[in-house]
Design a protein that fits this description.
Elements lengths: L2 H9 L5 H8 L11 E3 L11 E2 L10 E10 L1 H10 L4 H15 L11 E10 L12 E4 L8 E3 L12 E10 L5 E3 L6 H8 L3 H15 L6 E4 L3 H13 L4 E5 L2 H7 L7 E4 L5 H10 L4 E6 L7 H6 L1 E9 L6 H10 L5 E4 L7 H11 L1 H14 L1
Parallel strand pairs: 9-10, 9-12, 10-11, 12-13, 13-14
Antiparallel strand pairs: 1-2, 3-4, 3-7, 4-5, 5-8, 6-7
Helix pairs in contact: 6-7, 6-12, 12-13
Length: 373
């Protein structure tokens, strides 16, 4: 039976238990192709419009009982701005997206987030090494994770990225999840693991520049979660000068006492001349520029703030990668541009280790948790 036809029959109660068992024991794909309903068989789960989010498992899958969703910053900002800060409207739209798509994927930004939960069932052929009862954070995007919400998000006011939730999620054979560290609160661990790809990639790029014989100047645009971890990772990897760029004086006053940046400047990351002049005055241009802001329009300013032969890491789902590529061409900029895809081997351990041993970074994260209340 075609998956889409089976899904419609299941909604009306027409799928028998035997039929369901037969479907779940047919061969599966480690990347989740077997869960794609629309367009059937034509795309990977992230690119698909609708997934089969049913909790019954194929042999290589894992089911998670959901505790908390964490919406990515770009998606949450877009939804909040669309609804003028109306939390109830944001909550309703998130429920509608999950209900329609079988996953949390903002149709405008294309992004999702991640979740924390407890392993409820492990298929006999799962390669993930998880056991029933493990509390985990998924390190793959909600935009490709089959998800069912069962509580109507009744405990969420729609005004923060962190979403208390009940429901089920499914991990494929090639998914990634990390057990929650026992010495960090689940809320803090979720916040850290949500952006753990950023510091790991920054550390790798800094090491590449060092291998070429010089300690690079690193400019990080935005000093939020990913930005503060990126500054710490750049320091630990041996970067030369570190420049933190923030949009307001209030954020500058939070960042300066931490010592994460040698220079903290206030500038609009969307202003080409404003940003490049601010970075130059702080010791730039940068050999490595890391874009961690969750607003669009920073692509070409980042190019202008980066030295010829330098590297730009776009670690923001608000980035238009076409604008970045064409902008660099139009500016005759010889820069390497990397997409921060969220995964680097060992990324979760590296980020958690930074938070454990750096009181400044931990303090920034805990103050954000307190502000979200």
């Amino acid at each position: 039976m075609a998956p889409l036809a089976r899904a419609h029959r299941k909604k009306c109660g027409c799928v028998s238990d035997i039929e369901e068992i037969l479907v779940r024991t047919t061969p599966s794909s480690p990347v989740g192709l077997h869960r794609v309903l629309e367009p059937a068989g034509a795309s990977l789960p992230q690119a698909a419009r609708v997934l089969d989010a049913g909790p019954e498992l194929w042999p290589d899958e894992v089911r998670i009982d959901v505790e908390t969703l964490n919406l990515d910053a770009a998606s949450f900002r877009q939804l909040t701005e669309k609804h003028g800060g109306d939390g109830e409207a944001v909550r309703a739209e998130v429920l509608a997206i999950v209900g329609e798509r079988g996953k949390m994927q903002n149709p405008v930004t294309g992004s999702g987030g991640m979740l924390v939960g407890t392993v409820a069932e492990v298929g006999p052929e799962s390669p993930l090494g998880l056991a029933v009862g493990d509390r985990v954070a998924t390190l793959v995007s909600l935009s490709l994770t089959p998800l069912v919400v069962t509580d109507g998000l009744e405990r969420w006011d729609g005004r923060s990225e962190r979403v208390p939730a009940a429901g089920t999620a499914v991990l494929f054979g090639r998914s990634i999840a990390a057990r929650l560290p026992e010495d960090l609160s689940p809320e803090l661990a979720l916040m850290v693991m949500d952006v753990c790809g950023a510091p790991a990639l920054v550390a790798r790029v800094v090491a590449e520049h060092l291998a070429r014989g010089s300690a690079p100047t690193v400019a990080v645009l935005g000093a939020g979660k990913s930005g503060s971890l990126s500054l710490a990772a750049a320091r630990d990897a041996g970067a030369g000068r570190r420049i933190g760029v923030v949009p307001t004086q209030a954020e500058a006053e939070l960042l300066r006492p931490t010592g994460l940046a040698d220079e903290v400047v206030v500038a609009d990351a969307r202003s080409p001349l404003g940003l490049s002049e601010a970075v130059a005055a702080a010791g730039g241009p940068a050999d490595v520029t890391v874009v961690c802001v969750d607003v669009p329009g920073c692509e070409q300013p980042a190019v202008l703030a980066t030295a010829q032969g330098g590297t730009i890491i776009y670690f923001s789902m608000a980035t238009s990668f076409a604008a970045a590529a064409l902008g660099a061409e139009g500016l005759a900029a010889d820069v390497r541009m990397l997409v921060g895809n969220g995964y680097v081997p060992g990324h979760a351990d590296l980020a958690v280790d930074i938070v454990r041993r750096d009181p400044a970074v931990r303090g920034l994260f805990e103050s954000r948790l307190a502000a979200e209340g």
